[in-house]
Design goal:
Elements (H helix, E strand, L loop, with lengths): L13 H7 L6 E4 L3 E5 L7 E7 L16 H17 L8 E5 L11 E5 L19 E3 H11 L4
Antiparallel strand pairs: 1-2, 2-3, 3-5, 4-5, 4-6
Helix pairs in contact: 2-3
């Protein structure tokens, strides 16, 4: 059974439509728990979205609870193996989440961007590592384990 988030994603968001297939996307990976697809507006050579398919799905990173840590670890693992298949390591990549109100889709999703040193200059601010509006997956896991919240 999936953990209950602090806030659930709306059922009509674009990522739910991608998961259910009315909305098209370029898929890279899918299993019962996660789906990975190319970002529609890439910031670098590799820019993927790792999206949970569970119900209820958290609205965003601030809706996570410590019970979501296994999901985050699974998202990270899938991101790492996908990066490897594209010729990149996690050392070369940025894996993280936008923090509300700086989210574009109200459905938890992890950006996977590589190489992080080649992020388009117009997007570097948007994807600043561990800035107030973007938090890396490892920092997210640490915050949940230590304080029970990302906020």
């Amino acid at each position: 059974q999936s953990p209950i988030p602090k806030a659930e994603a709306p059922t009509d968001n674009v990522f739910k439509k991608i998961i259910n297939r009315p909305q098209r996307a370029n898929f890279v990976f899918e299993d019962d728990e996660l789906i990975v697809f190319w970002d529609r507006s890439p910031a670098a050579a590799v820019h993927l979205q790792v999206v949970p398919k569970q119900d209820p799905v958290p609205r965003d990173v601030c809706a996570l609870t410590p019970e979501h840590v296994p999901l985050l670890l699974r998202m990270k693992d899938v991101a790492e193996s996908t990066l490897s298949s594209k010729g990149y390591s996690t050392d070369q990549a940025l894996l993280g989440f936008h923090v509300p109100p700086w989210i574009s889709v109200p459905h938890l999703h992890m950006h996977v961007i590589a190489p992080r040193t080649a992020i388009d200059w117009t997007r570097r601010f948007k994807y600043s590592k561990n800035a107030g509006w973007f938090v890396c997956v490892d920092s997210t896991i640490t915050r949940l384990e230590r304080s029970g919240s990302v906020q």
